[in-house]
Amino acid sequence: MNFPGGRQGMAVFTIGIIILGLLFYKKKAPSNETANIEAPGKKSEVRSEARETQVLIQGNMGSQSAEQVALVRKQANQRMEMGLQPIPTINLGTKLKFSVKHKTFPFGCQSGDFDIIKEITPNFKSKDFLLSFEPLYGNAADGFRTRLSLFDIGEGRRIAVTLPKPGSKPRDYGVYLCLDEKKTNNCSKKANFAPHLWAGAANPKADNNRTIYFQMITLSEDSAFIIPSKSINKKTIDKMKKILGPIMESEKSLDLLGKNFSELSNIPGRVTTGTFDFPLPYRHPNCG
Predict the structure, then answer these.
(1) What is the mean predicted confidence (pLDDT) over 197-206?
(2) For the chain, which residues make up each domain, given as ranges?
């Protein structure tokens, strides 16, 4: 699918996504917290999303016809309604920077992702887990990886992620959390730790070096988006390919998202207070 006006059309679409994301985020964020990322370094790195949007509008909107603007806004609305979420980013020249963190919370009386993480942890202070942003295509070295302990995950510390800008073509990334005792620094090649396997996790012979959590993001020239992963089935995948496929590196990425979601059933990631959160539920203590 080609955007009206070529690269300018793509720019206007990005504007639409940012504007809608700001409106959505403003409704959700507590009034006493900021939507900007609190990143280390110079304060000039942390830019106001509102100011950035204003600059983009002034620089691009005037060159588009009313019909082109209306079409791009319609496409942006469709994608936001489907659940596409913009991630607040910082432009570092050739890279994009954003914050992520794990968020553990009690959820019902069934075991959750954080329960199995605790179950398979060899040592709560040992950094045997891997959080990785791995490109689905191309050079694997373009990704981001950091090692975590059970303590790190439970604490929910904020992690600064930097990824290379993809240029004119989008770049799709798988976001993984896996047990990586052998220090392979790779999650994408590991099997998924599906819930039906959890009962055997305590077996000394079990290989628990598997992926526990999966999410997908896509990067454009100056933006990052969380690809929605709630209630995925073949029908929704086909619809996502039609609506989201044009802004992704490949619509085939959505097939992988569907496969991993069906096996892992993770709660989708979301943006809260300027940070990309990975929800990790655990069995409520009151359940006995």
Answers:
(1) 90
(2) 7-91, 95-287
Task: Give SS3 for 270.
Answer: strand
The DSSP secondary-structure symbol of 44 reads G
E-strand spans in 136-239? 144-148, 159-164, 171-179, 211-219, 224-226
CB 212 within 8 A of CB 178: yes
Both structure tokens of 99: 């914050």
What's the rounded Cα separation, in Å, for the pair 211 and 206?
14
The answer to whether 56 and 72 have CB atoms below 8 angstroms apart is no
Considering 55-64, 67-76, 224-233, the range whose residues carry the highest mean pLDDT is 224-233
- Whole-number Å distance between alpha carbons of 106 and 90: 32
The letter for the amino acid at 116 is: I
Spatial contact of 10 and 63, defined as CB atoms under 8 Å apart: no
Residue type present at position 136: L
Q: Is the pLDDT of residue 33 over 80?
A: no
Work out whether the CA dihedral 152, 155, 160, 162 comes out positive or negative: positive
Confidence category of residue 232, pLDDT binned at 50, 70, 90: confident
Average pLDDT of span 3-28:
46
The pLDDT, as a whole number, for residue 74 is 80
- DSSP-derived letter for residue 100 is E
Residue 252 in tokens: 């085939």
Instruction: Kindly state the tokens that stand for 33.
Output: 């917290």
Q: How far apart are CA 20 and CA 77, in angstroms?
A: 8
Q: Where are the alpha helices (DSSP H) in 29-91?
A: 49-60, 66-82
Backbone angles phi, psi at 270, to 5 degrees: -155, 160
* Rounded Cα distance, 25 and 154, in Å: 25
